[in-house]
Amino acid sequence: MAKVLLLGGTGAIGVYLIPELISSGHDVYVTSRSARKSDQNKLTYIQGNAREEIFIKKILTDKYDAIVDFMVYTTNEFHSRHELLLKNSEHYLFISSCRVFAESDVPITENTPRLLDVSKDSDYLATDEYALAKARQENILRESSYKNWTIIRPAITYSKTRFQLCTLEADTIICRTQNNCPVILPQEALQKQTPMTWGGDVAKMIAQLVLNQDALKEDFNAVSHEYRTWEEIALYYKNLIGLTVVTTDLNSYIKTVGGKYQILYSRMYNRVMDNSKILKVTGIPKESLTSIYDGLARELSDYFKLHESIKPNYVINSGMDRITQTKISLKKATVKEKLIYYSSYIGIYNFLKRVRRFLRR
User: In angstroms, how far is the first alpha carbon of the chain from the final one?
Assistant: First the structure.
């Protein structure tokens, strides 16, 4: 039994990690920016912004046996904070990402080269984009004098309120399904392979690493052994919720959806992963991991209910509508959101021309 603190632990993985840790007998403390009530004796929510140093220093006056850190930091933020986290816990588990890895023709292991180390794209390397930031923060841990850390790299993880198709998120997938409108996908990415992993399986892996002596000063790829092409994943969505797809070229996709580096240096790579290291240390049998189809079926079963609490991205939807010649419903959109949609649909210059023409009447 231990005190375990989850920083940013209310997301796709945290929602499953909490019950895993409680079932192991741990007392779990979870930071949340919004007020939450616990219905369990062994679960405590701490309201506050875990990115704020004053807040973190305050809650760390109570030392924790383990800290699982889901926060997304800039490299500078993590550099100034890592020692505080390491010295106030017996075991610090840093959630990184499989996106740190470069493209590989063979299954990706923990020793596969990372983008930070081999990329020749100077413009990209000049950024602190997610994959680069995570890799730099891994380096900070390795170069520290502390030995009580573990690096965990989930792949694309789907869960109760988060599921993806290429780089599309739940809000877009649900909105367009509800409106009988197709999403767009880049033709060039359809045959690229992905090891999408159910959040519940990743949570089981993390729970077995907490305070595990064999995990100290180690890194682990927390992924399923299964991989599918994005074309196959798209068919899963079609079979499960009726989502349809219109293919477009890569540049049009990036222009519409954004996330240039995410698509170029992640979704355009074949991500076939080797999870043997984490299965060996945790003792989790490969056969117990959830298949992508079964996991998506489980999480998407309540997608109509989830839609009520998910706000669509009107900029992305307007761009998709322009390409697919469809239109989502704007009945629930505010005036501001409608203006955003239409200005994006026809272009801001043409939108302003129409507004001026209307005002002159």
Answer: 73
